[in-house]
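Here is the promised in-class demo. Please do not try to memorize the tokens; focus on the logic of going from shape to residues.
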């Protein structure tokens, strides 16, 4: 059996835990399972109830384990983009073994030397990105294996984040009895999946991660992540009045915005679109009422984004890329012209995870694949023995021919003759 590259990516979001398990096969990601478990242990990307977070992680992992038939033992973990600091490192690597040929261990030694840098006692290294190699005066992003030279230069960005947050998130995962395969900034992972790095080669790109209770803005330029800031208003601010007035839950308000909301007042008439009973009181909502209660708040949110980014958009060629769970709200796609620069939404199109909420998790898996070119880490996220037994059992069923139901149906039909 060939080596299976199965990885689990875990994101501790502001109101739920998201777990995406996928298999990398010939540069394609096949989604095996996704899990979402609601919890209320995070505020403004800081862990406020560790027990609630740990419990949600355990439940998500248990659900996935039952569905897949083998245990998940280690995960890729998303780290919140708090106090992100970028430090550039240029490492000169000498070929001292007399071969004048670049080998993998030369690249690994340069990589390890670079990541030994410390930016400050309150920061922790999370990502190594934008690695370039300068060999014989030529710069390339491709691994220069086999190139002939006396020395070469590795140019890379080290991305640090708030140490307190890194340790808090990691502790939750470890208390859920999981190993951490690697960590990745949520903004960096989202950019990997949404191809933001490529778009930012010759322009500024503002990546907007729209969550329920906050919004993370990340600035990219020259193909690099430059800065991240957190705004303490997410899409929940859009329906706050609606929720308070009618006593609705967040999930109900989210579905109202997601499925039936249009920016055109003519399409929001007085027809009843929601009917429920809360505390023995019947609630009826029309599309018009949802529009009146929410539309101005959506415009206010966009205006706040424009004001925050005004120094950037005034400076020249800029583009917005909006993703995250909030991008599932269809009306937002209709309002892209309200942003102060060209804007586009992004929702993953990977089968099994076509949801803006999974952009970060999918990006983590692709980012790990890039790092593996240097690290050559053969660990996967699942128990290898159990996974191989499960795959072999499936193959055995396939070899034996028809499945149980088909065989029983065929026997019944033949026995009637």
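The designed amino acids, position by position:
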């Amino acid at each position: 059996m060939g080596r299976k590259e199965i990885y689990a990516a875990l994101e501790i979001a502001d109101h739920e835990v998201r777990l995406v398990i996928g298999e990398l096969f010939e540069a394609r990601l096949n989604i095996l399972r996704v899990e979402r478990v609601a919890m209320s242990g995070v505020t403004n990307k800081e862990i406020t109830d560790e027990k609630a977070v740990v419990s949600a992680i355990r439940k998500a992992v248990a659900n996935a384990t039952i569905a897949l038939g083998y245990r998940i033992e280690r995960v890729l973990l998303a780290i919140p983009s708090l106090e992100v600091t970028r430090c550039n490192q240029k490492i000169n690597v000498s070929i001292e073994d007399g071969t004048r040929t670049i080998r993998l261990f030369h690249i690994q030694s340069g990589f390890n030397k670079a990541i030994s840098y410390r930016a400050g006692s309150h920061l922790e290294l999370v990502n190594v990105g934008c690695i370039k190699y300068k060999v014989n005066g030529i710069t390339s992003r491709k691994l220069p294996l086999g190139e002939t030279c006396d020395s070469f230069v590795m140019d890379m960005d080290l991305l640090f984040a708030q140490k307190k947050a890194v340790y808090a998130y990691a502790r939750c995962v470890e208390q859920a009895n999981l190993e951490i395969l690697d960590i990745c900034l949520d903004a960096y992972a989202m950019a990997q999946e949404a191809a933001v790095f490529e778009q930012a080669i010759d322009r500024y790109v503002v990546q907007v991660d729209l969550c329920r209770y906050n919004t993370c803005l990340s600035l990219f330029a020259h193909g690099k992540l430059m800065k991240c800031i957190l705004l303490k208003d997410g899409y929940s601010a859009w329906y706050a009045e609606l929720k308070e007035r009618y006593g609705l839950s967040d999930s109900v308000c989210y579905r109202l915005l997601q499925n039936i909301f249009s920016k055109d007042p003519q399409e929001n008439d007085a027809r009843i679109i929601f009917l429920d009973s809360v505390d023995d009181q019947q609630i009826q909502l029309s599309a018009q009422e949802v529009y009146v209660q929410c539309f101005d708040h959506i415009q206010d949110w966009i205006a706040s984004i424009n004001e925050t980014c005004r120094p950037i958009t005034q400076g020249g060629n800029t583009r917005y890329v909006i993703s995250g769970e909030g991008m599932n709200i269809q009306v937002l796609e209709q309002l892209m012209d309200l942003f102060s620069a060209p804007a586009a939404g992004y929702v993953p199109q990977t089968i099994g995870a076509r949801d803006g909420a999974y952009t970060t998790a999918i990006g983590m898996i692709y980012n790990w694949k890039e790092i593996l070119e240097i690290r050559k880490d053969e660990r996967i996220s699942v128990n290898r023995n159990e996974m191989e037994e499960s795959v072999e059992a499936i193959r055995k069923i396939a070899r034996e021919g028809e499945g149980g139901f088909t065989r029983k149906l065929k026997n019944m039909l033949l026995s009637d003759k």
